[in-house]
Amino acid sequence: MSIMSYNGGAAIAMKGKNCVAIASDLRFGIQAQTVGMDFEKVFPMSDRLYLGLTGLATDVQTVVQKLAFQLKLYELRENRPISPKTFLSVVSNVLYEKRFGPYFIEPVIAGLDPKTSEPFIASCDLIGCPMEPEDFVVTGTCAVQMYGMCEALWQPDMEPDQLFECVSQALLNSVDRDAGSGWGAVVHIVEADKVTTRRLKARMD
Amino acid sequence: MATTVSCLEVPKGGFSFDNCARNARLEERGLTRPKFRKTGTTIVGLVFEDGVILGADTRATEDTIVADKNCSKIHYIAPNIYCCGAGTAADTEKTTEMISSNLQLHRYRTGRPNRVATANRMLKQYLYRYQGYVSAALVLGGVDCNGPHLYSIHPHGSTDKLPYVTMGSGSLAAMATFEAGYKANMKKADAMQLVRDAVAAGIFNDLGSGSNVDLCIIGKDMKVEYLRPFDVANKKGVRQGNYSYKPGTTAVLSKSIKQIKYDIVSESVQEDMDTS
Predict the structure, then answer these.
(1) How high is the ipTM of this complex?
(2) Pairwise CB contact (< 8 Å): A129 & B62
(3) What are the UniProt keywords, alphabetically (chain A) (predicted)?
């Protein structure tokens, strides 16, 4: 078994028109046994910046706390909210510091620039190699399935409602084909003036 | 208490090995490590009449999955020096950033543009220090006061100074193209075409390379042209059907909306003019 599939989990982030979507499943398992069905893997880092983390659950919690710490220091020093691109740099450096003894997580970042409200998504591998594609990022035990679903469903410039349907269906159908993720899903649609959080009805197996 | 960490402790630069013992124990229990994102890659460099041309493909892979279809493998080192990277993507990214940073400090210290040999020396000493564990295979090229220079740098720290080099999984296909087509002191247009052909050979014949060809031409007077993409060798197909879902398709259990307050950046009040 791989360390990354010990706890299971999945997360997607997608770009839309003046909005981004970020979603994750809710399963927390220990190998074959499901222990929790309310383990969200998407964390709000600031008003318009969200971070999704999949992989080993203990490292997910540790890295989120480390990053929140770094972010708070940044905001105290700079007296302004962090931009998503800079945050990607912070995440990348925090992970690369542990290059030879890594945290077993794979992050996805989704947010809007605090000044221009331009949508931004990015992901890293477990040692912090950054990637900023134009369309979507996926991570988790069902990454292969999610790549397939997203390639088929994603279109550029989707409105928030359309983007919600796209990301939800991509996530739900992918986790249904993976034993290690599922048991519910949470989706956040981040727009310039509001964030809509929805919990989805999913297969509980 | 064995470890009391003060929150105000400024972390030292460099690598931290805190997790190594824990990770080793996890592997003893039979859990396998995940693979790092590699850049598979075909990267090439060529010295022509006026300068240096660097070329690279744009595919980043995670095992056999294509993680990024359009990643940038030609990294900025200095205004007159660029570097292509193959191997573990995080290593090439961070190593080139670090050397770039140090070279900027060097520029301030010396008051001169950097020499390519300086970048080469810094990179090889860093990579040798880590005995190949920092898995970065680089093609370093640039123009300085002594003319154009091209180096290939291997993960263990050995370097070769040559008129044309290729690295990465597609290096054999690219080198075959170079060996057939290279002439000394080529003209810019011919050189660009040859570099494009070499990278394309890698893209179409090597599984680890794909997508587009990026070029970076560093010419006379250290002028840089960064052409990304230079050649879109593989276009994505046009979707034949419409797969969008009607709003309301997904069953929602609960919904909550959080309004975001806008920060007031500036406020100005205009009082009524006194027209007495």
Answers:
(1) 0.91
(2) no
(3) Cytoplasm, Nucleus, Proteasome
